[in-house]
Structures
1.
Amino acid sequence: MSAAVAEAEPGFKTPADAAPALPLALVVDDAPLDRRMATAIIEKCGLRVECAADGCEALAAIGRAVPAVIITDLQMPNMDGLQLVEAVRADFPWVPVVLMTSRGSEEIAIAALHAGAAHYFAKRNLKTELPVVLPQVLAAARTDRRRHELLSCVEHVDCRFVLDNDPAMVPLLVAHLQEQLERMGLCDKSSKIRVGVALEEALLNGIYHGNLEVSSVLKEESEGAFRRLAEQRRRQEPYCRRKLSVDVHLNTTKAVFVIHDDGPGFDVTQLPDPTDPENLLKPSGRGLLLIRTFMDEAVHNAAGNQITMMLRRRSSPVIGNQ
Amino acid sequence: MSFANLSSPLAFDRRALLAVADGDIALMRDLARLFLVDGPQTLGRLRLGLAGGHGVRVQMAAHTLAGSVALFGDDRSVELARRLESLGRRNDLAGAEPVAVELTAAVDALCHSLAQFLEDTAECPSS
């Protein structure tokens, strides 16, 4: 809470005044009267309260002390409620955000709910609805946080996924693996995206070029023709019987992914050198370039139907061989 | 102190505020003090937005004012602020000036009433 806000809010309790064991709620609203009303109600619910006048002040407050719950207005200067929800979801996904909505903020409220807000209530019903919503949200968040803590204790994971040739499954698997990598500390938020790109490229290569044998030359000529042929082959013998297996081995120091397709393979020596700038814009080499850049190691088997990728844990946010 | 005995013609509904504040007169006094500072400031932002033809600024200031005056049960001010909020959202400020004049008078009257209320309840404990 800024000094200005503290000064303008009679009766505000600073953290030093309050019992340290009480959970902390952060109220975000540019209207001092609404902040004061919300503070009074939340304190009656048995929480400590800190206040911020907009999303920027709220992020600064969260940086000082992560609250158990955030209750925010939507229309605010500098950083509005939607932007705040997005920022909190990105950096503090276990902290629930409750929206205070009012007339004229319906659209932004829906966007904020889609962005990950946990609950909402009409500001005019603050007194009656907040004491009901708050315990619900806190209980749900507590369970979620404990589960998160439990899963962060995982030290070793070995699993295998066996996929049909459905490209729609790829983003789901990638998201699952990214979450697992992040939880085990094998990648951070910035490197997560790069690792995700590498995994997606390898998985799609296995489906399109490995199992379905659709050439990247066709892709260069016509993306539409490439997609149509792939869709056709997904239902044709022998392609439709082929599977993509993904073996995942994670421990606290490294991640190894082995992606194996049932296709005939290819001569890996014939691949264009992905590190040659001449080949940078060729679709046939781009996937491999990204994989080799974003992973610490990436090797094919002799048959050309299996790639093994390795990612080491590192303290630096930069991953790969740049 | 018997709150019901306070009697003066006021621009806000003390009973409505008492209900909102759950009978907490100290909280009511806090809200009144806050509005005496914040209400005119927000009104000033609204007037600036109007003078500069900035619909969004008018909308945001009117939105804040509408929420604040609603706490005091001042229905007329709520209605005026909502009209200005709507005009600001549409960036249609041509007819906004008379509404702003009326709202300014209503907010002045509310501030006067709140100052009176603080005087009447001066002996109540502060939060």
Note: Chain B has five helices and no strands.
2.
Amino acid sequence: VTGDTLVHRALLYGGEDEFLSAAVPFLQEGLGESDHVLAVVPPMNEIALRDMLGTDMNDVQFINSLDFYLHPVRTIAAYNDVVQGVAPRRLRALAEPNWQGRSALETSEWGRYEAIVNAAFSKSGAQVICPYDRRKISNQVLNGCMRTHPELLEGGYYPAYNNDYTVPEAYNSNVDRETLAAAPAGVDRFLIESADLSPVRAFITERATRRQMSPANLNNLLIAANEVATNAVTHGTPPIELMVWVHDGSLICEVADIGLWHPEDLVGFLPPETANSIGFGLWGARMLVDLIQVRAGFNGTRVRITTAL
Amino acid sequence: MGWAVESIRGQHVETLNTQRPVGDLRPGDHAWLAYAHPDEQSRVLGDFVYSGLDAGEKIICVTDTLPRLLPGLLTRHEIDVTPFAEAGHLSVIPWNKACVLDGYCDPGQMAKTLEREIDKALDQKFNRVRITADMTWAAGLPGGSDFMLGCDHEVDSMVGPSTSVTAICQVDRRGCTPGALDALRSTHEVLVEVNPEYDDGVLKITRTYEPHGLRLEGEIDSARHAAFTHTLTSVSDPRSEVHLELGRLRFIDLGALNLIGTHAMRLTRGNGLVLDNPSPDLETVIQMVGFHRFPGITRGHGWRSQ
């Protein structure tokens, strides 16, 4: 199965009938072909699917999408674990991310997630349909959907090629061009001048502890921030500055240098095979905190880490 | 006296002893070394005797060997100490001369011998005296444990109040019963161990011999990767397991985890690198990035998950 091409289709539905008429045959086909069949959908759609599938539903693994789509990088890793865990069987997934109540920033990151699926599982042979409820999604979500799925299901059984599809590398670098909100005036600053980062960790610890960050979150933040700072010290151009501030219930740590960094496309999003693989560091850092944003250009490189307090 | 957590055969045992590197011993310390490997003995004793000679202190060794064969001097410090023995800086006293009274080994007699030697040294204008006593020969004999305990008691009452004498009593732990080891340990306030391989105030790396490996204390980041790799390589042997004791490691960066992963595959040929007692935070990190991404690493003692 490995080596087979990924199928990644968007199903744009306007009602339950439309949803079921595409989803049910898709799942049943998988059962017929002995795929590992997974339905990651909201509770309402799970109920509808169970009614239609009858006894077949016992062979379908249901997961509540509200519990599954919490962190884009972790979700990719979780799907990767599933793909590897069920091999040599093929994964067939009905995968409906949760778009309600997402901020513009979150929507953007989940759009990136949809793009990266194309790269992460390109040779897995996985069969994936992502249902989008046309009645509920915003234009931003719809735009993302159209650019991240090579094929569309819009009524009818046969998919249409999607001319708006963008290769994941291009989509990814577009997301990384969105402007970051400026750091507020009066942020705490620390000049990083040495590979010995223990003063950097002490600086962050002091500020996080003052704002009552939980010890577990702090530990993860320290590892992520240390990784980003190490990268700046190793590859960046001094002066390297750390800025720390609080925004919207999160502690923001930003490491900036004046070097020009070309982040290798998608590295840091794709789950590495082992800890020895290229990209383990940045990917590991992304796994540990809520969000890492990279902005690289001719005026320097900025990496912003967001961790809930 | 402080509480120390000593890792014995991988289990955490709380003992009322202070664990101290040989380089940190001070006058008045009556330390105990139960070595698990000849290398451990030669590192501790070699460093103890060498630095004593270096500082112009008097060395008294109660052992049945020639001066130049004292552990760790020729091999580790590449010096033949025979001239020091001839010049009176170093006295090697065989056990039969040190403790035999009327044909029996007598702890009291040993105390008298040592007292005489110490007085002589201080009269000769030595300011400090270092004593080592190798008791392994007694461990296997009937009544050997009682003799060792008797000697320890005598040495303790001699060294404890002293401001000029430091002593190490040593025994090969492989020759002792667990009961005898427990009894001997409890008579020593200080447990001596090898000097750290690396210590920059943030990270300390110390060799361990039971189990074989390293103990990491403090914080590892990229500024310390080279030292970590170097020491890890120095204890690695494709034929044996290497344990990393992590109980006192407060921070480890992803790069060091990567190094551990690379090392596990290369130098121990898989499944040879055992991680013991990770902090709950470290265990969470390893879980989050996936334990399966560390082929060649085995979970040792003190893991909450298996």
Note: The first strand of chain A starts at residue 7 and ends at 13.
